[in-house]
Amino acid sequence: MVKNKLVRNAVAVVVALGVIGTIPVFAESYDMEDGHAYNNATSSGGIKCCDAGTINDRSGEYASLYLRTTYQDGKDGILNLEYYDLVLGNDLSVYPSYYEPWGYTPLESVAFHVPTITTDLAGFGLWVNSLKGRYSELKDGVKVIHRSDYNYSEVADVIKDTISEFSGLPENTIKTVRKNAADIAEKALWKHFIKYYYEAYDVALHNAQKRLVMNS
Fold it and tell me: Within 13 Å of residue 12, how many CA atoms lie on the same side as its CB?
């Protein structure tokens, strides 16, 4: 397990590359330790975005960027951690989806009491908004950002501001946010969702029966 530790001056966040282009980050070296190198790094859109930023990935800096391109199965040769162990080590996760019918990654995050940032272009984000009857905020455990084809920079700014807000929260408030995140995850348990599957199957079977009768 990775010990969860909030760094007050910066938050280490694994960002699903999508709106990171306007977040100031910089990767000084593309070569990983132990002989692992990022293939064709100079053509990577994500790395190009990082190069355009202002935070240096050098010793003494407050923030570091880790670009992970392997499955977290515990045998990747770099972190050697399984995915859920890595999730547990986060203070905050960011999944700024441009399109996602549902989106299990933010749900998995809050299931481990790790607050998350997502968008309303993900089914999960829309569902959380429906629970709250409004746009969900960081205090709720899930920050849902409005995203469209035309507000790329705005979304990036909101992500930056939300991370900054979280890094300055007192410990007792963070505990409340984490509990609220877990409460949202509980509402997505199979015991709550199974009824919708039954309804969908019932509709499908009913329509199939109608077609059989019409074709007989």
Answer: 18
How many whole angstroms separate alpha carbon 100 and alpha carbon 122? 4
> Measuring CA to CA, how many Å separate 160 from each of 101, 115, 164?
25, 15, 6
**d(C-alpha 135, C-alpha 141), whole Å:** 12
d(CA 205, CA 208): 5
What tokens does 69 get? 């391109």
CA 107 to chain centre: 9
Backbone angles phi, psi at 45, to 5 degrees: -60, -40
Tokens 């035309």 correspond to 150
Which residues pair with residue 142 across a beta bridge?
116
- Dist. CA 32–CA 209, nearest whole Å: 58
Rounded CA-CA distance 135/183 in Å is 17
Chain-centroid distance of CA 202 in Å reads: 33
Beta strands of the chain (E only): which ranges? 93-94, 116-119, 142-145
Distance separating alpha carbons of residues 164 and 8, to the nearest angstrom: 10
Tens-place pLDDT, residues 145-194: 999 999 999 999 999 999 999 999 999 999 999 999 999 999 999 999 99
- The percent of the chain in helix, strand and coil, each rounded to the nearest 5, is 45, 10, 45
Cβ atoms of residues 43 and 15 within 8 Å: no
- Whether 184 and 115 have beta carbons less than 8 Å apart is answered as no
Which pTM value belongs to this model? 0.76
Cβ neighbour number for residue 27 with a 10 Å cutoff = 21
